[in-house]
Amino acid sequence: MSRTLKLAGQAAALAVVAALLVLLIWKLTHQHHAPKLGTAAPVFSLHSLDGSGTLDLASLRGKTVVLNFWASWCVPCKSEAATLERSYRRYKSQGVVFVGIDYHDVTGDARRFVRAHALTFPMVEDGSGNVTENRYGITQVPETYVVDREGRLVLHIPGPINAQSFASEFQRGLLKALHA
Whose CA is closest to 109, among 130, 133, 135, 127? Predict the structure, then answer.
């Protein structure tokens, strides 16, 4: 191998590494982060998973809202589903609204997930990930937020976590939101 060819190969390899480094730096500086607790919950309007229209978070102002970001392909989401449904049934009479936000999923798979886990609270779809990633900074599911009546975030549970820890943390945040 000639010296010129060897130097050209090394220069090309160095250029590829530099390009990857620039891409990494760009990604790190442009990634969206989770909103801070105590700040206003980022608003959104998403289509209902059952096709019945749209749900606007702003329309729920004055109520405690639980936002659960999930996907049918997410294994930990399956273990949290029963806890969420039990909590929804327990707190809906107190005016707590639960909203499931399906993330990067096939609509048919998401609907099968909802049926398989007998979830009865409202579900919306964020197929593009715009709300999930760009407004809430979520890169993995499940994640849950609790929003108080004033529209402020009072709890963020980044997943995945085990069902028992989820249940206790979730109950603490929900009670905090109800008494805010």
Answer: 127
Measured between alpha carbons, how far is residue 104 from residues 31, 33, 49, 141 in Å?
17, 18, 13, 10
The DSSP line for 21-68 is: HHHHHHHHHH---PPPTTSBPPP-EEEETTSS-EEEGGGGTTS-EEEE
CA angle 16, 21, 25 (to 5 degrees): 150
Looking at the DSSP bridge assignments, the partners of residue 8 are none
Q: Are strands 54-56 and 65-70 parallel, antiparallel or unpaired?
A: unpaired
Give the CATH number of domain 34-178; options: 3.30.499.10, 1.20.120.1200, 3.40.30.10, 3.50.50.60: 3.40.30.10
Interval 35-60: pLDDT, tens: 888 899 999 999 999 989 999 999 99
Helices (H), the chain: 3-30, 75-91, 107-116, 163-178
- Range among 22-31, 50-59, 78-87 with highest mean pLDDT value: 50-59
Predicted TM-score of the model (pTM): 0.78
